[in-house]
User: What shape does this take?
Amino acid sequence: MSLGASPSSHTSVLRRQEARLGYKLIAPAIGIIALLVVYPIAFNIYLSFFDVELNGSRTFVGLQNYTSLLNDSGFYHSIWTSVIYLFGTVIGGTTLGLLVALLMNQEFRFRGLARALILLPYFAPVISVVFGWQFIFDPVNGIYNHLVVDVFHLTDARENLIGNPESALGVVILFDIWKHFPIAYLLLLAKLQSIPKDLYEAAAIDGVGPVGRFFVVTLPEIRFVLGTVILLRVIWNLNRFEDVFLLAPNVMTLPIFTYYHAFTGVIDQGLAASVSVLQLAVLAGLIWFYVRKVLKW
Assistant: This one.
């Protein structure tokens, strides 16, 4: 620093140097995000305005893909299927996660082992557990039909629950609840353990029973985490593809609908891109709500 330079000017120079260093450090991350996230999104939006041929040639059609999509009954069916799937998986997974978290928050022997075992479905490879579930519901040798037909004699005919699209949706919902409830359980259990015991003791002194203490103490304390879990599950499950496709590809949720139009049958990647754009708009709205209302950024 020269003799005539003031301390404030020296500080501003250091700040500019630190800012330039910071930009240099985050530049690789920004480049990777732009390459792997921003570019595919922008290209997908661009593609939704074109009729794409198998050889890669594109013809500009404007909003024709969107109008064709809005006149497609299969699109509305996939929306309805996605709504049922979201409602069943989000409510079911969150409720089961909450019940298990309440149970695991109690003192009992081998609680640590039980807590670890509960996480196994979430960390198990999806392809392996899908094969297990397909074996359970196999119409010939599956455990489900063996119990229903041969053991309990509830019906005389064996059913292919996964082969029937209507019943397959229920199987997919049950699978998702079983596979992904541990994440809700983990987040809710962490919050339950942070609730002061004094609140429960004060409520008990006031004559509030166990059920009442849940509504008076527990629920108000966990409502923020509970809302976060529900919103995140909606965002994740609206985009979920591999679980549904591997277990029951006849369940036509929006991601499955997009896949079939993009890569199978009469390939129409422009139409598939328009579905993705509409789905992106919904997800962007949900993410904006989560960031502004939940995280309060």
Remarks:
- The chain has a mean pLDDT of 88.
- Residues 22 and 259 are 40 Å apart (CA to CA).
- The beta strands are 50-52, 58-60.
